[in-house]
Amino acid sequence: MFSNDKVDIGSLDVIFNRMIETITNSKSDIFIISEQSRRSFEEMQAELELIKLKIKYLIDESDDLEKRTKIAKQRLVEVSRFFDRYTEEQVREAYEFANELQLKLSLTRAEEKRLREKRDDLERRLKSLYDTIERAEHIVNQVNVVLNFLTSDLKNVGAALEKAKIKQDFGIKIISAQEKERKRLSREIHDGPAQMMANVLMRADLIERTYRERGIESAIREIKELKGTVRNALSEVRRIIYDLRPMALDDLGIVPTLKKYLSTVMEYNPGVQVHFQSYSNEQRLPSDYEVSIFRLVQESVNNAMKHGKALDIWVKIEWLHNCVNIVVKDNGTGFDKNSIKEQSFGIIGMKERIDLLKGTMDIQSSVGKGTVVMFKLPFPEDELVK
């Protein structure tokens, strides 16, 4: 126990408050750096897309110039071989035309090379900038944990010292889990309902302008389309509410819960068919394992519909002796694995879950041929629910 003749409680309070203020200011500075880096990241991404378009245009132009140069050279060879059949003017024109095309081709290729180098440099800078953003967010989360612990558990120093180790471990785990869930929810809301609501506002302005410029019939058509957007936003909000915690998971297990979830997916997404199969006998696993399996399937199905525009999705679960294999396959647009956006929050979230459960994940996809996502999760040792 502390006594006033040994410890100046007032001085401790001053030091404690200054420490909290310093940490809070540092957190604000890190947040500002993170936001500035994120804006720079978005600007560089836009510049990179523009450069890629220019490179594509130059490749097409280079291919065309190469064909024309080849034809011009053949013409020059013919004129040179049968010199007596052509006038001096024709020979000169053939030579100048071939030389001009060759010069244009060289300039085009040089510009293409320059843009490719700039593209590669931008991609390296984007990767470095993304790492900076991730580190900044990680530091902010750590600072939040420290602040929460300091402001909640250390206000009463005397009482906290008695059970410091227990409270520290428990508090940090709870706060860390809360921060991760809040981060996930903020991303979900930002990418879904928030953008949809912004779109609704823009469409509302468009309806007002349409009514003034083209009359009520055009405005009514726009309103019908707007209703579809609002309906989608409502569906997304309901999905997020359901995502917070599928209550059936604790009572029924992963297989019945997935069946219900996938049925709901088809209900809210007309035209989408989800085919579900579970092989061998389902085993009840610890709650965190079953939640992780549900989230992995959920994220994969959402990606198939949102990014792949898939109309048919196959979900298969195979229960083995010491692990469970999960396959989510779709007939969507697919993507080029060489240009996959590793910074995708969805992929990062899945990898984090897989790593925590000591499992593996493999993604196979190509443009126009759909996507296959495969997970392998080992059962926890001596923790199977009997």
Structure description:
With 386 residues, the protein is α+β, with helices and mostly antiparallel strands. The protein folds into 3 domains: 9-170, Methyl-accepting chemotaxis protein (Helix Hairpins, Orthogonal Bundle), CATH 1.10.287; 175-233; 249-378, Histidine kinase-like ATPase, C-terminal domain (Heat Shock Protein 90), CATH 3.30.565.10. The chain is 72% helix and 10% strand. The chain has a 5-stranded mixed beta sheet with strand order 1-2-3-5-4, with helices on one face. A hairpin with a 5-residue loop joins strand 4 and strand 5. The longest helix has 73 residues, at 9-81. Keywords: ATP-binding, Coiled coil, Cytoplasm, Hydrolase, Kinase, Nucleotide-binding, Protein phosphatase, Transferase, Two-component regulatory system. Pfam families: DegS (PF05384), HATPase_c (PF02518), HisKA_3 (PF07730). Its EC number is 2.7.13.3, 3.1.3.-.
Short recap of the structure:
By secondary structure, the chain is of the alpha+beta class.
- Total helices: the number is 9
Beta-strand portion reads 5-15%
Q: In which order are the strands of the major sheet placed?
A: 1-2-3-5-4
CATH level 1 class label of the largest domain: Mainly Alpha
N- to C-terminal distance: 47 Å
Mean pLDDT: 78
Rough outline: extended
Query: What fold name stands as the CATH topology of the largest domain?
Result: Helix Hairpins
| CATH A-level architecture of the largest domain | Orthogonal Bundle
